[in-house]
Amino acid sequence: MKQPVRVTVTGAAGQIGYALLFRIASGAMLGEDQPVILQLLDITPAMDALEGVKMELDDCAFPLLAGVVCTDDPDVGFKDSDYALLVGARPRGPGMERKDLLEANAAIFSVQGKAIDQNASKDIKVLVVGNPANTNALITQRNAPSIPKENFTAMMRLDHNRAKSQLATKTGKAVTDVKNMIVWGNHSATQYPDLSNTTVAGTPALDLVEQDWYENDYIPTVAQRGAAIIKARGASSAASAANAAIDHVRSWALGTTDGDYVSMGVYSDGSYGIEEGLIYSFPCTCENGEWTIVQGLSVSEFSQGRMKATEAELTEERDGVAHLLP
Ligand code: NAX
């Protein structure tokens, strides 16, 4: 059996946390031969609820669960951590402007970035789920200068999975028939689900659907799926978000399937003309624990416009918190 790895989950007492922790402990994220120690971080008022979650984890008697730490101290939560899923974030409150939300989260993610810098393994892999995920990932990365910037990513996998599922339904095929999906940019309404390179059972997706459906139905449906879930369920996506977090880290740690790629919010190196340093979603392949941006894909004028629009929003978000960035 392998040595246990330490997995930090923030916001662990929340609804995504509840759908996430049991799957990590079961081996769904890092493999059925990889023991894990869960280091659960939440705020002080959530400690009782977190203790209850720990009791349930204990009651599962998971063979791979080698320990559970519950804490409200980021230095303890990130101690020697190998993986961190940053789920906890400040939700938008009544009367809160977008700028206030960005600032409140900048404060949380600056503290956590510093705690990662000072306490975690230098090889830690970080996934930011808490919104605004891409900019929160940027803030975390900038506050952890001793860790490679490639080790900070933002979750776009839920958007990616939604995009695959909607296309499979439309074409009457299985999700496993859908290959090379891309969602570019920000985890927000400006995201761009791009079918230009996607195939369904080997046929180009754009040969199977009408351009009008693609532009006016598909793209908005995928981009606004989160809002549709809230309307239907009365609460935001939780199990599907947890599932996407598992998929993201599993692909990153254990590799992507040959001939396919996934969407990940990663540090832009300037690929496809996207400003260097933004955390932007690109098509990626993963091998040996490292992601690589897929190069050389053709970008139509329509795609270029959409990719630039979502980049502009990320630039604006970054500029909005620039005074808080080191
Ligand atoms: P909940 O409100 O159920 O849980 C959030 C938890 O975070 C709470 O337990 C809270 O006490 C904790 N928390 C707040 N501040 C903290 C801090 N400074 N340190 C540690 N813990 C802290 O929210 P939930 O539904 O679990 O969603 C969590 C985040 O995921 C939200 O920001 C949400 O917007 C975001 N999402 C991101 C998605 C993505 O695709 N990137 C999709 C799903 C989800 O909407």
In short:
It catalyses: (S)-malate + NAD(+) = oxaloacetate + NADH + H(+). The chain is an alpha/beta fold.
What does this structure look like?
NAD(+) binds at residues 11-17, 42, 105, 112, 129-131. It is an enzyme of class 1 (oxidoreductase). It catalyses: (S)-malate + NAD(+) = oxaloacetate + NADH + H(+). GO terms for molecular function: L-malate dehydrogenase (NAD+) activity. Strand 13 (279-287) and strand 14 form a beta hairpin. The model has no long low-confidence stretch (mean pLDDT 96). The radius of gyration is 19 Å and the shape is globular. With 326 residues, it is an alpha/beta fold. The chain has helices at 15-26, 47-60, 74-77, 98-119, 133-142, 157-171, 211-223, 225-233, 239-254, 301-320, and strands spanning 5-10, 36-41, 65-71, 83-86, 125-128, 152-154, 178-179, 182-184, 192-194, 199-200, 203-204, 262-267, 279-287, 290-293. The chain has 2 domains: 5-154, 3-Layer(aba) Sandwich (Rossmann fold); 156-321, Lactate dehydrogenase/glycoside hydrolase, family 4, C-terminal (L-2-Hydroxyisocaproate Dehydrogenase, Chain A, domain 2). Helix 1 (15-26) crosses helix 9, helix 4 (98-119) packs across helix 5 and helix 6 packs antiparallel against helix 7 (211-223). 41% of the residues lie in helices and 19% in strands. The structure holds ligand NAX. The site of ligand NAX has 29 residues, from helix 1.
